[in-house]
Structure formats: C-alpha cells, structure tokens
Amino acid sequence: MDLLRSTIKVLFYDFAPEWIAEAEVMDIEKRNTHFYERLTESIKWRERNFTQSEIGILQHWLEDELMLDEDCNMGYSHKDRYTAYDRVFIPLAKCGNKLLNLSGKQPCVIYRHLLRWRDLTLLTGEDLLILPSLARRDVMINNQRDSFCWPNIIRHDDLKINTILSQTLSDTHAHLNASTDVFDLNWIAVMNHPDIWTSLKQDKYNGLFFSLGAHQEYDIVSRYSDIKKTLLEWIEIAAAIRMRLLTMLLNKDLENIDAPSLDFSDEQFLDNLKDEFLGNLAEISDHIIKTQSGLKYDYAILNWNEYGFTIPESSKDLDSPFMILSGERSLFYKFFCHYFSGKEPFRKFAPQVFLYFLIKNKVRREFVQTNALIGFNNFKTYQDMKYRFVASLGNETNNNKKLGKCNLKKLYTDIAYIYAIQSSIIGTIPKSFEARVMPNEISKIRHLNFRESIFGKGEIFEDNINPTVTLIAHFSKRSDNVKKQDGEIRFYNLRKNLREYNKILIEEFRSNNTTKGILFVGVDAAGNELLTPPEVFAETYKELREKGISNFTYHVGEDFYDLIHGLRSIDEALEFLQLSTTNRLGHALALGVDSRKYYTERHNCGIMPKQVLLDNIVWLKFRALEWNISLQPETQLFIEKHFEELSESLGYVYKSQKLSAYHYWEAMKMRGLGNVEPLKSKKNTTAKEQILDTYLFSSETSSEGAKTQIFEFPRNFWKDVNQIQEHLVEKVEHRGIIIETNPSSNFKIGPFTLYSELPIFKLHTPGNGKGHHLPVTVNTDDKGVFATTLENEYSLLAISLRKQRDSEGKRLWDDKEIEDYIKQLVEYGNISRFKI
Prior knowledge:
Elements (H helix, E strand, L loop, with lengths): L1 H13 L2 H7 L4 H19 L5 H5 L1 H9 L23 H10 E2 L6 E2 L4 H11 L2 H15 L17 H6 L5 E6 L6 H11 L2 H8 L1 H9 L7 H5 L6 H20 L18 H16 L38 H19 L2 H5 L1 H15 L11 H8 L24 H18 L6 E6 L4 H5 L22 E9 L14 H19 L8 E9 L10 H9 L6 E4 L6 H14 L7 E4 L7 H7 L3 E5 H17 L6 H17 L3 E2 L2 E2 L2 H9 L17 H11 L1 H7 L2 E5 L4 H19 L2 E4 L1 H7 L10 H4 L12 E3 L4 H4 L3 H14 L11 H17 L5
C-alpha cells in the first residue's frame, strides 16, 4: 500500500509536464522506457527507506502488475497496444479501491485508511482518485452516475464517529476569505476566461510567478528541460485539453472520433490552441447553466439534456454549493467511464488528460499547502494566493464575447463568500460558523444573503438560520518601521490604524440591535506574530472593552523564534490584553510542543533578533522566580551573560549606569499600558520608566534590537522550558481561557511530524487519567488552504488516537474513550461560541 501511494505521489505530484511533451514524439517502445526511467528515478528520492537496487526492480512490478487491468482489456496481452502513458490511470483506480468505500450514493473513505488517504490526497486532490475509481466500478456493474455534488472533502464510513459529527458543530476559528476552495475557483476561472491569460501576462505582480513556473516548490525539472514553457503557457495548454475533452464527449459517434494531438514543435502551437478553444466555447455558450446572478461560471456545467444525453444533473444538485465542482467532476467521470469501457479514442487521449492533471496539480500546489516547510511565513505565501487569478482583471471585461460580459470580481464575490459559508454550515443539522473578516469588510459581508443557492432557484436555509453564522473582526499584525524617528513610538502606523478600526467596530457593534443580517460578535488579532507583539493591541482591546465589546480572542504561540518566545507571547497576551474566562487564544502551539524534542532537533541552537532574546531571558528569569522554579545553574549563567551584553549593546541605561534585570522586568510589564508620551520633558524618572521610554521611542535601540543574534542554549535547557511550559498551561487553565486548535493548520505550520504530536492531546488529554483538561475547540482555520472541513478535522484526531500505541503495541485508547473525547471537544466548540 505504501509503495502504491508513493507511486501515485510521484506520478501526479512529482512527474513533470515536460516529460509528456518529450514522449509525444517517441514510438511506443521508447515512450515506455522514457516513462519508467523517470518514474523509478523519482520514486528513489521519495522512498528513501528502500535501496536503489530495490527501486531498480520496481519497474517489473509496475509493468507486470500495477499498470495492468485485465478486466478492462488493458492487461498483459495489450502491452504492445498501449503505452505506459496510456495506462497511467490504472494505479489510481487500484489505489482508490483499497482506500474508498464506493457502495453508497456518495463516495467515502474507509475509516481505518483515513490518515493514508489524507497523506496522499493532500498532495493530489481527492477527485483525482475518486473519479477513476467510481468510473471503473460503474463500468463493471453497468451503472451511470448523474450526481457529482458530494462535499469537497469526503467523509469516512465509521458509523459511530459520523453519528457524533452529525450533531451541531461549531467552527470558532475560520477566516472567511480562505474558507472557500480558493484553488478550485481560481482554476475554473482560468479554464473558462481566456482574457485572464492576457491580463496575467501584463500583470507585474504575477509576472515573476508565471515566468518561473513555480513558487511554492523549486521546480528543477521545469527549469532545466529542453521544453521551455512558463506556468501560464501550461495553463493555456490545460484549458485547450479540457475543452477538447468536452467536444469529444459531445460527439454522438464516440467510436469513430479521432483523438486530437499535441504538437509542441509547432511555433504556432499555442495560438492554434487558443483559436480552437474560443471556437468551441462559442458553440456551447448558450447551454451553460448560469448562477442566480446570471453569470456563466463553468462551461462544463452544461444542460446535457439539450445534447440528447441521458445523464441529467439532478434538480436537487442545483441547490448544492458543491454544484460549483460538478462540472469538472462530471467531465472527467465521463472520460474515465469511456476509458475503462475500452473506447479507443479516449485511451489514445489519455496522455493529454494525464498532462492536464499534472498541470492542474502544478498550479494546485501553489494554493493548497502541500510543501514540507513549516512556520507562518510559509503558510502566508499560500494565504496570499486567494485572489491570484480570479480578481486579476479588476473591472468588467467584454473582450470575451463567448461567455458574455463578465465581471470576474463580481463573479468571485458572488460565489466565493456564499460558497464559503454554505459549504461550512451545510448538513443535516446546520453547523455554526464564526467567520473572521477585516473590520472594513464587516458591513458588506454581514448583509450578504447566503441562504440562496448559487445555481438553483430556492433557498437552502431559512431566515432563522442567521444566528448560525456570526462575524469576528480581526486586526492584521504588521511589521514595525525599524528606521523610525526618535520620539516616534514603536508600531506608530499600526496603532494609528487600530484606532480607526475601533471606530468602525464600535459602530458595527451598536448596529447589531437594528440589523437583520449576520451579527458581529467579537474581535481577534491575526497574522505574523513574529512581527507584532501583544502589547501593541493592549490599548485597542481596552477601548473596545470599555465600549461593551467583551468577546476577545488572539492568535498567539503559533510561530516563534524559540519555545520561550512562544510561551512569553502567550503570557503577555493574557496580561496585556486582560484575557479571562470565556476569552480565547488561537493556536497557542507553544503550550503543547515537546520541549525536549524541539531543542534536541535544533541542536540547542538559536537565532533571533537581539531584542527578542533579551526579552526572552528576562521573562524566563522572573517568571521562574514567581512560579518557584529553580533554573539550572547553566541556564542562570546563560541569562546573566546575555543580559549584560544585550542590555548594554541596545542602550538600556539609567543615568549613565547599567541597569539590573529586575528594573528591565518591571519595565517589560508596563508595555501594555498603551500609548504613552516620551519622557524628554520629565526630569524625575525612575529606572523602569527610562527603560520603557528607551524601548518605545529610541530609534537606535529599535534598529540595534532588530539585528540577528546566533547563540547556543545550555545542554539541558529543555528541562527549564518544560517547567515553565507546565506552569503557563496551569495559568491558562486556571483563568478558564479556551484554546482554539486547528489540527491540519497546526500540523502544517508547527514543528510536528505526526498528528499524535499535536498540542491538543497535551492540553486536553483523552480519558479520565493524568494530564491537563483545558477547554479546547477544533476548527478549520483556512480550510481552502489546508483542503479540509470541520468534520475532517475531528475525524483526523479520532483516527490518530486510534492509531496510538504503547511500547508493547497495545492501543492507548479504546473506541469508547475516543468517542467520549470527540463528544467533549464538540461540546467545547458549541459552548465557547461568542454570543452578545
């Protein structure tokens, strides 16, 4: 199974589009050699537990078993008739048959294989395995499917866990703009609107991205192949292949049609493809199903009845938000049905469909976080991709007369927000959804009518569903101006913007009593926490609290220079923002990271700005004193040495004398006072006032503090950190603070290699035994970036617990304990929702 999954990862994630283009000019024998050499060479680098000799004989397994399908007349006797490129979809169906339960109306994952499924489909997308598996099964039993509106992330087949997750669920940490399927919307946009292609070529923002051909992955194959194509050119080729497939499917004489070819050697190749695309688009334009607002979203969402086909889209499907995905699904399901039933033109067209999926996944991995890097900055590059294609044109465009006059921004807004909300709360029992939005977006979004279906004519939800969806305003953390002038407070511009945002929020809060739209219920601060400490938001939270807004949460402890920095940030958020019972913390990973593993894997090395290191060691010293923690002698010497060096180099003095660490600590605690005036006019100042003044207003201190310091922690530093960590967890627990966990987000951003390492299991331990039992919630964060759903997040936790074993190989948790644990998490999510 693992080797099969690795083969599919290589085929549809690592395999280069250029290789197919190279193979197009070869005969059958050379094509096969070309295919297997590149496949086995790529698997060698992915499966490093196998020797090169073992991988070397893998080709025999591929040729003699994996790439053959006797039931579909693509067996051993047909090896000379079909190349490996023609048979590339057989492994998908074989893998899908092992991982999927296809017996019901909608596909679902076999529960015991859920982690394997997640590991594979995060890279490839789910439909790539679902569609060929469904099609092959339907061909075998002579069935024809007419509904393709299953959820974007399918469920599993465990009855007990599904029963728990069929009750009311609450997603209390979700960013609205990234809660839609950002890749799918962008992909379908460029497949349908060729005027985007012209716009992207002229767009300076997109220029480098498209010329390199990759952004999130270093695509060495694309850069050094003899066939030079930019990412945008590959997108244009994919659009042509997609349209070619549709025109083939619309032909009544499927047995006698010719599969069109691709000639990469022709200089007019791309121009010819564009002309072909536009001509075919004009012919089908009148039959495209429109959205409620009259826009033609995807030409593959056709009224098939008008072409004489007996595969009508279900009328109920029109009301589903997943109708957005149905065009792509139905198009390739039909291809796979013809492919597995033996229709020769479609088997000859298989290499082009293979190329299409490679291009699609090449683009997908720029939107869905699939790379192995960690940290917030890596995630942010994905987050910033939300509007890469769809909103690139900005204004109405009428160049594309084939689809009619279309404002792509309107198209995206009409669909994206409605889809994000509907796909987040749809179910037998609607889920609750707290959507985070920027303060200046609240007025627009809170009056959005998300009850109406996107394509249908009815309302999916009744009026009384409004309380199910609420809005949380989130401030964006931003970097400070290091080259600021003396007398200008740190984060001057951000503090100024926050005061303006507060005016908007106070007015929106007052209007809750008069509006019938979505309610505004709370405030958050999100973004790169390495750039902005909690102290900057102290005055903002205080002012809002005085105006009656008391529902606060705060992103913290998600990204940090080292574990002490993450813990200090959490502690400062509690103190400076005055968080208490019913308030929440977003992520707070530092509370649950294994300190020994963390520092051991880093070889006790640290790198961070001088100011951060100084603050860390002073915080560690005095929190240890307050919590009666005896730091190791090596740690104490480390603190003393670095405090003396750093405080002097950063200019922290009082009346030309060196300052004590105690005075510095007292000044640190004053940072949450809000905006204060410089001390230039004040004659009698205390040491802590002088330190605070230097920290806030000195340009030299700010500039020097931003410089990098590299150092080595004491050998057993992790032991001290572990004690501090435990006491801070107890502090959070004592205050009744709720932790918003986001399993997939935490797993991809934090320093974890297994789901079992996620902090949620430490913060709220399963069972009634030892451990902490903080109130924690399970959420999606950015489900479009992480390709997930709320049900999927709970399910991944459940199967992770089921897989955990002790040293003797026995399960740590039985089914009843896991079910009770999931029920408890669901309850925490529901009771922790912000209310007004």
